[in-house]
Amino acid sequence: MSGLRLLAGVLAVVTSVMLVDTGSAAETSFSYKISYRNVTSDPDGIWSGKDLSTLSNGTVTIHEYRLSTPQSEWLISQIWNADCSGATCPTRLVRIEGGRRTVVVDDMMRQVIPPDDPRFAAMSRSRELAAFAQHPFSLSQDRKTLINGDYRFELGGAKP
Amino acid sequence: MTARPRVRSAFRKAGLFLSLTATAAFAGESATSLVGAGMPANCADFAAKVSSSEGNFGTTNQYGCLGAFQFCPGTFNRYYNGSAQSFLNDPSAQVASWTKYEQDSWAQAQNNGLTSLVGQQVCSGGQCATIDQSAILMACQFGCGAKGKLANYAASGDCNSGNVKDGNGVSVCSYLVRGAGYDASCFTGQAACLQGPTGPGDFPTSTGTAANPPTSSAASIIVRPTDI
Fold first, then answer.
1. In the A/B pair of chains, how many CB contacts fall below 8 A?
2. pTM of this prediction?
3. Integer Cα distance of B13 and B159 in angstroms
4. Do residues B109 and A46 make contact, with C-beta atoms less than 8 angstroms apart?
5. Which of A113, A112, A73 is nearest to A93 (CA)?
6. Window from A21-35, A89-103, B163-177, B186-200 with minimum mean pLDDT
7. What is the pLDDT of residues B164-177, one digit of tens each?
8. Is A47 on the interface with B (CB under 8 A)?
9. What pLDDT, in 10s, does the model give residues B47-70?
10. What angle separates helix B3-27 from helix A2-27, to the nearest 10 degrees?
């Protein structure tokens, strides 16, 4: 019986730690904003020129996520284009302050799972998969690191 | 009093289950099973090498990537028209889709000048290799775009630079080394030029050891270390 009590105690502690972790992560997680499918240009102007790198049909798909903090607005734009690898696509983190945009991370990041894509809707989901699908991007508490699944990107290298 | 052994047994069974599922998740598909799904036999070893770090035909990972080659949502969207479940249930479709993906990657590598790396020596993690077609395709898992990791390496030649590493800090060079030495002609459309040892004096540059040294009595010339 003492073994069961011990097990129950451990589970309670683990659960409470996970709840605390989930709560703090939610504060800095990006929320899905919009997708532009099969477009020939970026309506929000994050990608242009050679960076658009269209697919053979001349189009790209762009997914956006956003986060509001007291200091700034943040936008993530991921482009599904010819430069994607099997698992990643070009992605930019943009900080918006007073209408001024600054690209603070520009790298290959894990492909998002579009929340409105019916082909993925019926897919059975583990807890980890469901969590990633809902919040593929978050900022660390100190706002110095962008977290994308198991990937980490230091904020910096400002590119107005 | 009987609860403790039951708890222990439950943990033991859970541990065994987890270790078995972990093994299954990372095993990948064998060359034989890939050939069975339509992969040309000469390229099956390379395909199995890629699959070994990806998954099995029925695998879905925590990022929504599907199948033996882990097609993530954007790639899946580009190369397959059915549902995620129908893709998981169809090994032939996975092989056909991945073949097209590899062919496109090779074309993109050519367009971006990345195939000029072929023939160069690359070292990573204490291992060295000569870059060939299969090495390029393996490294294209980091992207073959004009601003991708492989393009950054082609520009700098520096395996330790931050811009040749992924979000986990893994260098594209480790994939160049890992992918070298396979027949990838099914994807490149070019005959493989593998540098296997074929006669006396031929040796792989990664080891520096002669593969087929003749006996001293059969050798036409003997070079001692002191002669160099």
1. 126
2. 0.78
3. 43
4. no
5. A73
6. B186-200
7. 999 999 999 999 99
8. no
9. 999 999 999 999 999 999 999 999
10. 40
